[in-house]
Amino acid sequence: MNLDTPYQFLKYLWTDEIINNIYEESKRYAIQKNPSKPLTLSENEINQCLCICIFASLVHLPNCRAYWSEELGFDQIKETMSLKKFETIGQYLHFNDNHKHLPRNHSNHDRLHKIRPLYDELNKNFAKVPLERHLSIDEQICSTKVRHYMKQYLPMKSHKWRFKFFVLCGISAHLSKEGIYSLEIINRNRIPNSKIPTEEVFNKMERGHSMEFVGNYNDIEISVTARKDSKTVVMASTFAGEKPLGKVMRCDKKTKNRV
C-alpha cells in the first residue's frame, strides 16, 4: 500500500465510489423531499464537506457555526466552503434510498439501512489492510444526540447517550493514530479458573500493585493482569503482560498532589 500522505490515506478508505454514492443519494433525497427544488451539488463538495468534518473533529469549538465566525473561525474552512453550503449539504446528506427501507416488522428489516452502503464499503476497505500478528478486539464509543433505538445509555460517562462499536485493531503506525488497544479490559467473571485474587483482597493492596496469571486456550497463551488503580483493573491479552513495569505520576486525593 502506498499511503505516504494524509490524503492518500483518506482516499484509501473513502474511495471515489463512496463519495459518488453519497452524491447520488443526497441528490435523490433532496428530490424526494421537494421535487421542485433539486440540490445543487458536486462530488468535490462532498469531499470538502468530509474534510471539514474531519478537521472539526480535531479542533473542537462550541458549535458548528463557530468554525466560520470572525472570532474563532478558521480561514482554511472559510475558504473551502461557505457556512450556508455546508449546512445545506448536512440537511440533505444521505447514504441510502429511504424508499427501500423496510419496516421493523419485516423479516428483512435492516437496522443499519440508513448507512448500509457506507458501512459495507468502509468495512471492505478496512479488510484490505493485511492482518498483523498481534490484534485486539475492543469497544469504541461514539457520542450522539440523534434519536435512534440502537444507541445506549451510559450513566457513568460524560456523554450519556452513545453508539457502541466493536473494532479490530493492530499495532501498525497508521492505525495507532486512531487509538490502538493491545489490551482489553474485562470483567473478572469472564475469566474461568482465574488465580487473580478477589477485588476485596486487591483493595487492601497499595495503589500500583499488579499481578499476572498466564493461562492457555487452544494452545494460545493468554496473559491476565490485574492492576490496583483507584479501582481494580483486569486486562487480558495474547500480546502484552504485566512487564515491563514503569513509574507514572498520579494524583493523590488525600494530599491533592501528584505523587
From TrEMBL:
Residues 5-170 form the PiggyBac transposable element-derived protein domain. InterPro entries: PGBD. It comes from the Eukaryota. It comes from Nephila pilipes. It holds the Pfam family DDE_Tnp_1_7. This is PiggyBac transposable element-derived protein 1.
